[in-house]
Structures are given as C-alpha cells and as structure tokens.
Design goal:
heterodimer, A: 351 residues, alpha+beta, Rossmann fold, OB fold (Dihydrolipoamide Acetyltransferase, E2P), 2 domains, six-stranded mixed sheet, five-stranded antiparallel sheet, elongated, B: 267 residues, mainly alpha, MetI-like fold, 0% strand, globular
C-alpha cells in the first residue's frame, strides 16, 4: 500500500497532493498536461526528492525530508513503465527483461531463463532476440511491462501507458494491458491524460489540476458528479454553473433558467448534463421536457457512430445525437434549433 | 529555357561559393599529389624496410595506442564528471583540459619538462627516490602524446554524454541498477559512438604529435623517435626516405580510420 503526501515546487507550479493506493487497486491519476502527473510518479520512484511530506510503501518510509530519509531509486521495490518504454536499444527483448534480474545478482544464465518465462507469459517468446527498434508499439509496451514486473515490484507505476501508440493499436493494447495489469497483485498507479484509458483501466480516479487534487473517486462517481470544467469536458459531460432561485430552479450565469427534478442542495450549484440527454428539434416542441430553449448549432463533430453538436445560446452545451438525426434535421453550423432536456436528466450538486 | 527549368529544380549555389569550395579541395589535394608524384616507387620496399623506418613505425604505433588507452581510462570518467556533475569550477576545469588543444605543442612539452623533468616539480622527488626519469624515454613520448591528445577524447565523449537521453539511466535505476551498474551497463554503451569517435581523434592526434614529443622526449632513434620526427629528420638528409615515411604514415592512418568510420563514425 502506497501512502504519499507530496509537496514539490516545479518552477511556477506547486505540487501538493495526498495519495493512497491500496494493494490490488488500480488508481489513475488523470489531469491536463502540465498538471504535475509525471512528477508524482518520479517522486514516488525516487527519481526526484520531495520538498516536504512523506512517501511510504507498506509501512516503510521511502522519502521524508523532515527525518532526512531518502531511499534511492534502485533500492525501492517500485517498478516504473515509462511513457516511451525506454527499452535499452542495444539489448534484445530478452536481455532487456533480464536486465533487472542481473542487477539483483542473478547469473546471466539464470536471468535469461527467468526472462524467457516472462516473455512467454506476455506472448513474446518469438521476439526474444529482437532489438527494441524492430518491435511494434504494442510489443514494446509488453516487453517494458515484462521487464518491470520481472523485478517483482510491490508497486507498479505506469506513465501514460498508451500515449505512444497509434489510434489503431490503442484499443487492442488497452484491452491487453487491462488483462496484464489484473495479473499483478500489488498496488498500481497510472498516469494518463486520456479519460477513456482511465475509465477502462482504473478502479479509482484521482483528478490532478494545477498541482492539486480536485476530485477523486470511482469512475462512475466522478463521471456523474464532475467537480470542475476540466473533468466535465473530459468525461464528456456538460457542466453548467448557476445559482438556485427557488428549490428546483437554477439560474445560469448566462441568465437562462433550468428546472431540475430534485430539491437543490445549496445556493451555488453546478448542473451536470449528459450530452445524450439533450434532444434537438427544428420546430418548438411542446411536451413533457421541463427545459426548452432556442439555440444555434455552432459546430458538428463526428465521433464514431455519434455526432457531437456544440450549441450556443442561453445554455452553452454539447449534445450527442446519431448521424441519422443530423441528416433528418439537416443540421449545419448556424442552424437554429430547439433543445430540450427533461428535469430528471439534470443532476445538480453544490459547488 | 529547359536548362533553366532543370536548374530551378535543384539547389543553386550563390555566386563564388563553388569556385571557393573547389579551391579548398585543390589546396588539400595538391600536396598529396606532389607527395605521390615524388615518391620513389621502385625503391619503396627497401626504404620502408630500413631500421630507422621500422623503429619509428613501431614506436609510433605503441605510443599512440598507449596514449589513447590512458586517455580512455581517465578521460571517460572526466567526461562523465564534466557532463553530469554540477560543481564550482566546472567551466574552469573544462577550459584547463582544452588548453593543450589550443596551446603550441612545444609549450606543452616545455611545461611537461618543468613538471616531470629531472629537476621538475614532480620529476625531481621521483628521480631522487627511484631513479626513474620520464623524459627522453618511450614513456616520455606516451606522456607527451597523452597530454596533447586527451582533450580530443574528453570533449568528444562529454558532448556524447550530454546528447544521450538520461532517462535510460532513470529506467535502469528503477530496475534496481546501482550507480556503478548504470555507468557500465547503460551510460557507457549509450556513449559508445562518441567514445569511439573520441578515441579515433585522440589516436590520430597522438600519432601526429611532434612539438611536445621532441621537446619533452627528444629524438633518439629506437627510443623516442616517432614517425613525424623521423620524417622531419629525413627531409634534411634523405628526401626519398622522408617521402616513404610520409606515405607509410598516411597508409597506417587510413588503415585504422577507414574501417572505424564505416562501423562507428557515420549513421
């Protein structure tokens, strides 16, 4: 179990976070570029010292400036898979995996035998003699993971594990990675800026913005209750800020009013609105939805079998509809539309 | 019209650039051509077989390789220190190490005498207690060669280490490698091209060393007379032998450099 309280100055950015990762748990540290995600991994691995705080793994203190404790990287039972894998270019896949075992005093023959078993486990036996530059992105990632796990770490760190892959292989490798991560029993902490990676791979999300944790929880909880614009945009949810006027009506900063189904929790609220919950019409609809407003299509963006429609007007939001609906409504940038949302599809929570 | 169109497709040199470049090539080529033209090809075998030539060749080879070896043993660690450690006086250290490159070699030889000569700063106590004298011996040649040639290795390896991606060393550390293991198993292999390039420059410089050698080690056939010294001496007395020695020196240099260039110095 990793328990870390990290304070580091990074130029203008002050990184200050508390983090816990239990054995068997996969935690994803999610945040925009420059939020300090990779630095968290580097200090946990001991590649950089913290300025203040304490890093502790399974009860052993690894870094604590107050007591002048610092365990060097090579002596921490922590594996780190780097974003671009950093396989040693002059060594074969087999010798890359054997490297850590050799460093632990194994003879060359023993290290190679053990490394072969790891390659087999990762379906890489046929590539044992191949140099890293001749491996595909997915294969290189598996070699890097095997190389790290071969050292028997108690904590596994992964830095942007899928960022170096092209879109085509990403989906397959993500599924593989999920399967391989499941075979490792220790604590796992991964860093990513891609919400899908985080949602697929992690049991728990920790959102890092500007050096601070803005939210943490299960993917479902974070998706349902995004607490910042970044999270809302990330998970594809519209987040609207406003004030309560009456116990079921919110006045947005733009002046528009939305009706929600449940009593509002406080005076300052955020309203989460899933893009799929917004219906679009060419004529003003009359029906059950409590919220109807006139909007203008700003932009259309195809995303697989859905189209995301950016709307401007009293409520700035993104709607997600099918390509067939786009064709039927004859939508294009500048088209005036009516948007409706049922009160039950709005989730309001305190800011 | 069509030639103009053809020319427009490729890069065109500004006026005067190509003639000046040709002049530079000619300037280097003409002396070699003159050397080849003046060579006594019929007597070459006999000239090259003379003791004065074989002695000089043997000594030059041994001392150039010895100087390169010494430079590797202490120069690679120095390059690492300059590239990786931050310490006060780092720039001053680098400037000091570069000094023999820019100094007239004769001055270097004189400085070596003041340090290691019979009455030198370090030479005197060593001579008084052991009777060992560095100047005017083959070891003196090695010392002069090392002094002049090592900077080429240090600076080349340092820039190679700076260009290397240090994150590979981080990766090795996370896999449990000690600092010593990281140096040997990651840093040195990654810097190998620059180490080879630096060694070649160092060796070539040592092979051609003249000024510091003649000042510090003298010009004794069989003991301190290297190829360049023999060439200089032969020019006074036996021009054919001088040409033969020069051609031999060129041949030896090419024999060492060409295979290395294909293997390491390109790509």
């Amino acid at each position: 179990m990793l328990r870390a309280s990290i304070e580091v100055a990074l130029g203008d950015l002050r990184l200050g976070i508390d983090l816990q990762v239990d054995d068997g748990e996969v935690v994803a540290l999610l945040g925009p570029n420059g939020a300090g995600k990779t630095t968290v991994l580097r200090v946990v691995a001991g590649l950089r010292a913290i300025d203040d705080g304490r890093i502790e793994l399974d009860g052993t203190v690894l870094d604590e400036p107050a007591t002048a404790t610092f365990v060097p990287t090579s002596q921490r039972p922590i594996g780190l898979v780097f974003q671009d894998y950093l396989l040693f270019p002059r060594l074969s896949a087999l010798d890359n995996v054997a490297f850590g075992l050799r460093c632990r005093g194994a003879t060359r023959a023993d290290a190679r035998a053990e490394a072969s078993r790891w390659l087999e486990r990762f379906d890489l036996a046929a590539l044992a003699a191949v140099r890293p530059r001749n491996l595909s992105g997915g294969q290189a990632q598996r070699v890097a993971l095997a190389r790290t796990l071969a050292t028997d770490p108690r904590l596994l760190l992964l830095d942007e594990p899928l960022a170096a892959l092209d879109a085509g292989t990403r989906l397959r490798v993500r599924t593989e990675l999920r399967r391989h991560l499941a075979t490792f029993g220790g604590a796992r902490l991964l860093v990513t800026h891609d919400p899908v990676d985080a949602l697929v791979l992690a049991d728990r999300l920790v959102i890092l913005e500007d050096g601070h944790v803005t939210q943490s929880g299960t993917p479902a909880l974070v998706a349902a209750r995004p607490r910042s614009r970044y999270v809302a945009h990330l998970i594809g949810i519209n987040l609207l800020h406003g004030t309560a006027i009456g116990d079921r009506t919110v006045r947005l900063d733009t002046g528009a009013e939305l009706t929600v189904a449940d009593p509002l929790p406080g005076p300052d609220v955020a309203v989460a609105l899933r893009p799929q919950a917004i219906a679009l019409h060419r004529l003003k609809p009359e029906g059950s939805p409590r919220n109807t407003w006139a909007a203008t299509v700003d932009d259309l963006e195809a995303d697989r079998d859905r189209v995301r429609v950016a709307l401007v007007g009293p409520v700035t939001a993104t709607a997600e509809i099918t390509p067939a609906a786009v064709a039927e409504l004859d939508l294009a940038a500048g088209t005036p539309v009516w948007a409706t949302v049922k009160a039950v599809d709005l989730t309001a929570y305190e800011r | 019209m069509s030639t103009a169109r053809k020319r427009a497709g490729q890069r065109r040199a500004p006026w005067l650039i190509v003639p000046l470049a040709a002049l530079a090539v000619a300037y280097v080529a003409v002396p070699f051509a003159a050397l080849l033209q003046g060579a006594p090809w019929n007597d070459m075998g006999e000239l090259v077989g003379q003791p004065i030539v074989t002695d000089a060749l043997r000594l030059s080879m041994l001392t150039a390789f010895a100087a390169t070896g010494i430079s590797l043993v202490v120069g690679v660690p120095l390059a690492w220190v300059l590239a990786r450690l931050r310490f006060p006086g780092r720039s001053a250290t680098r400037a000091l190490i570069t000094l023999p490159m820019v100094l007239p070699p004769v001055v270097g030889g004189a400085a070596l005498l003041f340090a290691f000569g019979r009455r030198g700063l370090l030479g005197a106590p060593v001579y008084d207690s052991t009777g060992f004298l560095l100047p005017f011996s083959a070891w003196g040649v090695v010392a002069a060669n090392t002094f002049v040639a090592m900077p080429f290795l240090v600076l080349t390896v340092e820039s190679g280490l700076r260009a290397a991606d240090q994150r590979f060393e981080d990766a090795a550390a996370t896999l449990g490698a000690s600092r010593w293991a990281i140096f040997w198993r990651v840093t040195v292999p990654h810097a190998a091209p620059s180490i080879v390039a630096g060694s070649v420059l160092c060796w070539a410089r040592a092979l051609g060393e003249f000024g510091a050698t003649v000042t510090f080690a003298g010009n004794l056939q069989g003991r301190t007379q290297t190829m360049p010294l023999a060439v200089f001496l032969a020019l006074e007395s036996d021009r054919d032998a001088a040409i033969a020695l020069s051609l031999l020196l060129i041949a030896v240099s090419l024999a060492v450099l060409v295979p290395l260039r294909d293997r390491w110095l390109t790509a």
